[in-house]
Amino acid sequence: MGAGKSTIGRLLAKAFETQFLDSDKEIERKTGVTIPMIFEYEGESGFRKREMEVIDLLTRQPQIILATGGGAVLLETNRQFLMDRGYVVYLHCPVEKQLERTHKDTNRPLLQTVDPKRRLQDLFEEREPIYRKLADLVVDTGQSSSRSVVRQILKAHEKAHCNALRSK
């Protein structure tokens, strides 16, 4: 949360001249309700089921830039979809910066708690090892501008693509 997935995803899609999709936005579009409302009526498990279905569909589309919710990686099925069907970039962001970027956002059900900083820290500790294991590339978004992060990703992608061509 607050790592810059949407902003960086849109910029990457523009650079690659392709479509940007956000799994949370697709869930909202499909259901006609907000993520917080899904959490309220179906709980996190209901949301995760919907999320898995959407990620399955979206990762089958060619040449897209996809932003997923931070908890998407909690399900092994989602991890497999992402690893098998795409190039995964982990946008690492320190908890303090996440809190700074999300503290006024009421559209984040997991942060509607007495101690959002503690919640972010707990989520970070649970998810960060999974993100690192899953990622083809890790980029720090805590201090860098969105454009700088995009340049780093483009450079890494270009290098990976050149290396792949050489190995054929």
Structural class: mainly alpha
CATH topological fold name = Rossmann fold
Shape: globular
The number of strands is 4
Radius of gyration: 16 Å
CATH class: Alpha Beta
Task: Average the pLDDT over all residues and give the rounded result.
Answer: 89
Can you tell me about this structure?
By secondary structure, the chain is mainly α. It has one domain (5-167): Rossmann fold (3-Layer(aba) Sandwich), CATH 3.40.50. It contains 7 helices and 4 strands. A two-stranded parallel ribbon has the order 1-2. Helix 2 (23-31) packs across helix 3 and helix 3 (35-59) packs across helix 4. The longest helix has 25 residues, at 35-59. It is globular and about 45 Å long. The model has no long low-confidence stretch (mean pLDDT 89).
Structure summarized in a few sentences:
The protein has about 170 residues and is mainly alpha-helical. The chain is built from seven helices and four strands.
Please tag this protein with its features.
Rossmann fold; 168 residues; two-stranded parallel ribbon; globular; 7 helices
SSE order and pairing:
Layout lengths: L4 H12 L2 E4 H9 L3 H25 L4 E4 L8 H10 L3 E4 L2 H8 L13 H19 L2 E4 L5 H22 L1
Parallel strand pairs: 1-2, 3-4
Helix pairs in contact: 1-7, 2-3, 3-4, 5-6
